[in-house]
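User: Please fill in residues for this 197-position structure.
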């Protein structure tokens, strides 16, 4: 594991105090990030969803990997219609908002009233070109190989904590906890935890 990915995992652990009750990782991809923040033998409480509805061409393949990786840890859900409305105490959106500002609206029905929405995403818009290149971790490199450098650069510098709070507050969520690159020693991610009214 490279140094920055390790620090990313440290950030994921900051979510831990909020991971209570039924937790859904919305847009889990291959489950590699999900697997970092869920405990072992927690299959009754943890759920991970990605689906063919997303239009991503390799969702089927990613979900097969997620099932292997999350075995005994989480229930992997493959279709949106299998998600129950108002069922989840917590929904996590990991690196999801920068690609789709409507994603909160999409997962909103599945979160209980009073439940927590945890958003973790790239916070790189303040970086110089040099610092941006320096911030590229193994996971980013994989994405750059799959897509291309400029598209990833655009997406990873698109939004910051302020934009995230603007969207969640616009949906009447109450902000509970926020961290950005400044409060994370320059670590280029933000974390925004908010509560559904
Ligand atoms: C950038 S990846 C993030 C994956 C994972 N959360 C992570 O951090 O490694 C985006 C993932 O979100 C999924 N996705 C995109 N739009 C979605 C939607 N509307 N509903 C559910 N999943 C979606 C894609 O299939 C893809 O697996």
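Assistant: Residues filled in for all 197 positions:
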């Amino acid at each position: 594991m490279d140094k920055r990915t390790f620090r990313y995992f440290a950030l994921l652990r900051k979510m831990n105090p909020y991971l209570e009750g039924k937790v859904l990782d919305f847009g889990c991809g291959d489950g590699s990030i999900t697997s970092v923040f869920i405990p072992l033998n927690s299959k009754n409480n943890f759920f991970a969803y990605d689906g063919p509805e997303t239009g991503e061409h390799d969702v089927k393949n990613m979900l097969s990997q997620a099932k292997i990786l999350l075995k005994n840890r989480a229930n992997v859900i493959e279709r949106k219609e299998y998600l129950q409305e108002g069922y989840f105490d917590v929904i996590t959106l990991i690196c999801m908002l920068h690609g789709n500002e409507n994603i909160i609206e999409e997962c909103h029905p599945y979160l209980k009233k009073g439940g927590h929405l945890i958003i973790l995403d790239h916070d790189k818009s303040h970086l110089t070109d040099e610092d941006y290149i320096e911030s590229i971790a193994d996971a980013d490199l994989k994405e750059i190989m799959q897509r291309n450098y400029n598209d990833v650069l655009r997406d990873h510098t698109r939004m910051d904590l302020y934009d995230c709070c603007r969207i969640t507050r616009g949906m009447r969520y109450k902000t509970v906890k926020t961290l950005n690159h400044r409060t994370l020693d320059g670590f280029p991610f933000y974390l925004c935890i908010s509560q559904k009214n």
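For context: The first strand starts at residue 23 and ends at 26.
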